[in-house]
Amino acid sequence: MSQTHAPARLVVRTVAVDETEPLIPRTDPRHPLVWMRRDEGIVGLGEVLRIESSGHSRIEDAASAWTSIAAAADIDDRVGLPGTGLVAFGAFAFADESEAMSVLIVPELVIGRRDGRAWATRIGFETPAEVTIPEPAPKRQVPRVTFEPGTLPPEAYESAVAEAVRRIDAGEFEKAVLARQLVGTLSDDAGLRATINRLAEDYPDTWVFAVDGLIGASPETLVRVDHGTVSARVLAGTAPRGAGEASDRDHAATLAASEKNLAEHALAVASAVQRLEPHTTRLDTSPEPFTLQLPNLWHLATDLKGTLGDGSNSLDLVKAVHPTAAVAGTPRKIALRAIAELEGFDRGRYAGPVGWVDGDGDGEWAIALRCAQVDLDGTVTAYAGCGIVHDSVPADELAETDMKFRPIVEAFGG
Ligand SMILES: C=C(O[C@@H]1C=C(C(=O)O)C=C[C@H]1O)C(=O)O
Fold first, then answer.
1. Does ligand 1 lie within 6 Å of residue 357's CB atom?
2. CB 323 within 8 Å of CB 179
3. Which pTM value belongs to this model?
4. How far apart are CA 146 and CA 226, in angstroms?
5. Would you list the domain boundaries of the chain?
6. How far away, in angstroms, is 207 Cα from ligand 1 center?
7. Is 139 part of the annotated catalytic residue set?
8. What is the pLDDT of residues 94-113, one digit of tens each?
């Protein structure tokens, strides 16, 4: 693990301001830091501190570095809402073996809005000067990125799904999530703001995020911690939207009654409950999976809500639950081995935790889905995957990845 600065004492000042709307057009077009849902959230500008970690202990290492930085910080927070005070944006690699760095980034300026209130937070090594909130940039067209299949092209993806089904039928494991990539190039002059804006406009009910080039709109809450309470939303089981109202309702009803999807969903819920329960004094799950409507598809969803009993912070819980069966499989270890073997590429931060943590350890983390990693050389790698169980049909799973690619591909003009 490395840090660009010694963990000196950060000085943090949050003040209420009149207005921060619109947030996304005020971010840095090349290095945007964004966490938004339904027009609320935070964006970060500049970078005061970066904590990098990798390997098996990447989440604990980041958590312990963060705890010492937060403990030493001088924080004056006049607003006191989730996302005020000291904040780091974070993105973690999916796999222990990944080449991708995991990061926590502390911006120089955070601006946000929530519950009708707006604020600005200055973070530095000295008492900060007055805050100046950048003006919103004029709206631009989304860039035009042409995507091509990556390492696992469509036919190879179908073969990988068929092989996973064979292994499931041979009793090796119950479920594994297999993903594929699309790769494109972003031109030099194109920034990322229009893409993020498009995601936020088209998918307002998802977590729209941008952290260190990882851009996306995830419907799946990995874990949220707020003053001793914990919540999560487990998704697994997917169906297309119908063309008309009646057919759309039919698709949702079929999904809610589908044994294949219910079985896949139950595995994901069981893994989340099993991992969170030891940290809670109480943990409730919504009684039946409900159908969650998104513009591109239907998901089966279960919400979890609980009370923390052991003082865990959001990063401790991220560590406890990642990777869930919604993005890895069951049993976890065997599924992870099958994924590495059958996908044959590094997932990077796709399907990893993405979100933010504050000075008390509270925070909001999603699973990085419906996303792409934009590298400094302009390479854009998008990812989408599906849970494979014993009755999965390769062509259907391939079609499902196309539905899941839609948000990010369209946001890049593809
Ligand atoms: C793996 C992805 O999505 C996950 C897999 C799902 C499924 O197989 O039904 C549903 C939601 C997500 O938990 C993805 O979007 O890439």
1. no
2. no
3. 0.97
4. 41
5. 2-130+143-411
6. 15
7. no
8. 999 999 999 999 999 999 99
